[in-house]
Amino acid sequence: MGDGKKLYKSVRDRKLCGVCGGLGEYLGVDPTIIRLVWALTVVAGGTGILAYIIAAIVMTDNPDELNY
User: Fewest CB atoms within 10 A around its CB: which of 12, 51, 54, 68?
Assistant: First the structure.
């Protein structure tokens, strides 16, 4: 059922906290696209800021990248 993928903040590809980099790795897309979508949600209504802060608090760093 599950393929063992877990959602983590990226340690290697972070601009602020690594949330968008981690989402990009998890979804298999370029993190730049995630960042652009996030920026659009911030401009469109501001809910992206709250979502990013919550994700940054809830998500942990990727343990496979900590010794990078």
Answer: 68
Buried/exposed 2-17: b ≥16 CB within 10 Å, e otherwise? eeeeeebbbbebbeeb
pLDDT tens for 3-62 read 667 788 877 777 788 888 888 888 889 989 988 988 888 888 877 788 888 888 888 887
Tell me if 47 sits within 8 A of 38, measured CB to CB. no
Strand ranges inside the chain, DSSP E: none
Residue type, 49: I
Residues 6+ apart with CB under 8 A from 26: 5, 6, 7, 8
Structure tokens that stand for 48 in this block: 């992206």
Give the whole-angstrom CA distance, residue 38 versus residue 32: 10
